[in-house]
Amino acid sequence: MTKRFTAAVVAASLGFFAVGSGPAAADAPYWQCVTFARMLSGIQIFGDAWTWWGQATRKFRTGERPETGSVMVFRPVGRMTRGHVAVVSNIITDRAIQITHANWGGSRGKVEENVTVVDVSDANDWSRVKVWYNPINDLGTTVYPTYGFIYKGQADTAADALQTASTDTSEIASR
Length: 175
What we know:
The longest helix has 17 residues, at 2-18. This protein has helices spanning 2-18, 24-27, 33-41, 52-59, 158-173; strands spanning 60-63, 71-74, 84-93, 96-104, 107-119, 128-133, 138-139, 144-154. It is built from five helices and eight strands. By secondary structure, the chain is α+β, with helices and mostly antiparallel strands. The chain is globular. The two termini are 36 Å apart. Strand 5 and strand 6 form a beta hairpin.
């Protein structure tokens, strides 16, 4: 339900921005990946995509497994000097997901929905991925390094971990 609502909000926003005089393509916004990922995920991190991982490790939960709604953070590599961020829209298998993102490759400034991404890392840890590339109707040939995934919700602090552990212990003792 939440995913459909979020998609509807994004679609409505895109439609709202496209309203105006002249051709819709001329009036459509030019999306940057960070602005779009922040809006779609609700994860409030600012700055270039490659900086998101460092910022997130202090504020949000992070990890190497995709969750729907999490943000995948690509490392800077080659022409992608500022990295890239994308929101996980679907989990297909343990090694294949779909992402929704903006300003990627041949879709400069545009949003692409449900793009397939495959984990090609040796350790099955999503540290190296291939992304679907429409012009060849297949996965692209480039392997992109990633930092991992940022999950919505605050990072656990040491105090939170101790509180959780003591609560779990007291519940077990009371049984």
